[in-house]
Design goal:
Strand order of the largest sheet: 5-4-3-6-7-9-8
Order of helices and strands: HEEHEHEHEHEHEHEE
Distance between the termini: 44 Å
Largest sheet: 7 strands, mixed
CATH class: Alpha Beta
Strand content: 15-25%
Shape: globular
Number of domains: 1
Mean pLDDT: 95
Bound molecules: S-adenosylmethionine
Helix content: 25-40%
Structural class: alpha/beta
């Protein structure tokens, strides 16, 4: 298999995943989601739109991110965009997901996009994976169970450096579920934060 990165192939994989996002649906909530917040009792891919993906890539490139942490892999759409930044900055993406079918889908997406060398998949509940985290982080993308964002930042905060960037998705459409997180990053003197009001709303925070 040809594993050399190719922009045209990458964009074809993006388009394929964007189409899949429109149809993928599991009705009901599988056992592994017990204790995890799920909107409307159904499982979708819940991918970010391409505009948000391009913004993520731009931010990760802007601070030459070497270690990129993603909370919520799904089928790997945002992951391939982040990995394309990691490829250019000589870094790696670490992405966390608990749903077995999605972990497998993401593995295939990373292979198809020829970015498997720039991504490590971490399987399990985010809080449990983060409890064993030990690397300095340059960029974090939060895109999982919204009510737990504040708990997650508390876990990875010790590993941020001055200039690390955190982007939290759904700050507009599900802002009410992460109010504690939004208040925290807005009021803390340790961050410069602003709401980028595109797509689902990206809350961007720079560690000062
Ligand atoms: C919004 S989707 C991620 C979409 C992905 N970032 C993208 O744009 O392609 C959120 C994902 O987080 C996973 N998730 C939610 N809560 C989780 C938790 N506590 N631990 C691990 N994964 C979780 C869900 O299974 C789901 O696939």
């Amino acid at each position: 298999m040809n594993d050399e990165f190719d922009e045209k192939n990458f964009l074809e994989v993006c388009t394929e995943l964007e189409k899949l996002d429109e149809t993928f649906l599991i009705k009901g909530v599988p056992e592994e989601y017990k204790e995890v917040w799920v909107p409307n009792n159904e499982i979708k891919l819940w991918q970010i739109p391409r505009t948000s993906a391009e913004v993520l890539k731009a931010f990760a490139l802007s601070n030459k991110s070497k270690v990129i942490l993603e909370l919520g892999t799904s089928a790997g759409y945002s992951g391939i965009w982040l990995a394309s930044a990691a490829r250019q900055s000589g870094g790696k993406v670490y992405t966390i997901e608990l749903a077995t079918p999605k972990i497998e889908m993401a593995r295939k997406s990373f292979e198809k996009a020829r970015l498997g060398n720039y991504i490590e998949q971490l399987e399990g509940k985010i809080s449990e994976v983060l409890s064993k985290w030990d690397k300095q982080v340059d960029f974090v993308f939060l895109d999982a169970d919204k009510p737990n964002y504040l708990g997650y930042i508390r876990q990875f905060e010790p590993f941020l450096r001055v200039g690390s960037i955190i982007v939290a998705d759904n700050a507009s459409d599900f802002g009410h579920l992460m109010k504690d997180y939004l208040d925290y990053v807005s009021k803390s003197p340790n961050y410069y934060s602003f709401l980028l009001n595109i797509d689902h709303g990206l809350m961007v925070s720079i560690r000062l």
